[in-house]
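Two entries, shown back to back:
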Amino acid sequence: MIIAVGLFSLMDAGMKWLTPNYPPMQIAALRGLASAPLVFLWAVATVAPISLVRIRWSMHLLRGVLSIFMLATFAYALKRLPMADAYTLFFIAPLLITALSAPLLGEQVGLRRWLAIGVGLIGVIVAMRPTGQAWMSLGSLAAIAAALGYSLSAITVRALGKTDSTQSMVLWMTVMVGFGAGLLAWPEWKPIASADWPAIAVIGIAGALAQYAITIAFKLAEASAIAPFEYTALAWGVLLDWLLWQTLPDRYVFIGASIIVASGIYLIRKEREHAEAEHP
């Protein structure tokens, strides 16, 4: 899981590298197109090809739209914010998933979990630096919008996971992002400079390997046991920010991240307890 998160962070660094020269929607398209061939090879090598097309197409289409929205807004956030800042605000996603599971999936969310969500929101406010220039900035709002898109997409995965394979979900999400975002980006598509092809290769290879690694992680361990390791993205983000852009987060980001991560881990533990109570 740590390797998967590190690879996803490397992919995000590649996306951030492209943000000064290309629109966010084009970057989202490049992310999908660069990974699609490798994801396709992995999918057909691990499951029967027929299972990749006998799927719930309407739900996959909805997830594709949500993924395009998530990637485009996150690319915009990466353009405006250091990676560590964007990750910190994106960490609100587990809290949003829990909050949205009540009205959308009919799941029971107890008082303690609602309190954890509230505490996590306080962490978001702290990370947005209410006394600084980043308060309610477009970059901060874009990161939160990306987290919302990711949360809604994750809820569709909960529904799709009952009938469709992981390979089909990953493959069609990647393909739909590549071609869907590509069509939306086409009117403002900018020619790709030769110097940017290495970054695109990093995006494609790291994204595909990360998806493979995270699939293995969820096969080897319970989701509730490895989910907290998603928060190692903050460490990767700080490292890549320092190596590539010579920036470090301020104390507001660290304090806000600590609050959000603590709330998220608490919710993950409560999810595990709830699952064990339902299936002892």
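entry 2 starts here
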Amino acid sequence: MSVIGYIYTATGYQYVGLGKKIYDATWSMRQYFDKIEKKYPEFKINKLAFLGPKEDLMKEENGLLILAAYQSGLFEVLKQQKIIPEQISGFKSGELVAFSNAGGISYEDLIALLFKKREMINSEIKKENFTHLLINSIEISKIEQIINEIKKQIIVEIVSYNSKDSVMIICEKNIKEKLIDIFKKLQGNIIELPYEEFSNFSLLKPVADKLKSYFLNLKTDKPIFRLISQTQGIYYDTVADIKEKIFDYIYKPAKINLVIETMLKNAVNTFVEIGCGSFIGRFIRKADSGKRVLNTHDFSALSTTVKLAN
């Protein structure tokens, strides 16, 4: 028997044509794109997602909203196929989308929150001064030691713990090459992630505080599935707990490794990565290669997931 866990990805993997085939084939997907198109006509979500241009589509502030529509549509398509998760979690703003899909807040409030987030972050920091690096094949303790030494002089932080030898960091662009050289000398595999969502970054604490204040005025309900906090790797206990902590992801590092561990300990044997990437799936396989990991990055992958998850 399948015990299904959904993990919602973050931005950075969107592509021109994202969701178009599913949009054309189902009202389930179409309604979520069209709601944004109607309420925020200046955003032009359908044109961006389906036609590009790629350079605009890949901007994280655009991907943030396109991905929310895509993930919400995927959730509805899967639900209609009677594929229902027992547990859910999300990476970066994927946690807000997961909460909304689980009935915690309305889709309309979710989109309003994400528009507010992107406006606040654009006014809070100069994003062009920073970049993200994925560091693999080095023990976390060693990475932490190096970062703790370097951050006395420059801005560099771990934004997500992925597995025992993988983290994602954010750093000032002007020291990117120096950091890459340091980690390569330790036999690390380093990948720059130029389109990654800006969150899990301590400088964004003021944004978290403002969003939380706005969020407290929204109508919220208990999610119908067990929701796992990305910053703690444990289940939220109550709606009050969610209200207090869900925006911690804006300024605290994600613990993907702990989220996966919690799901595995609580009987999940089929993971579905909700979004257009397969970033988290590789860490699930690394943690337990015997578990089924499915994805939804395009129409073909979604069709395969529908067949196998049932």
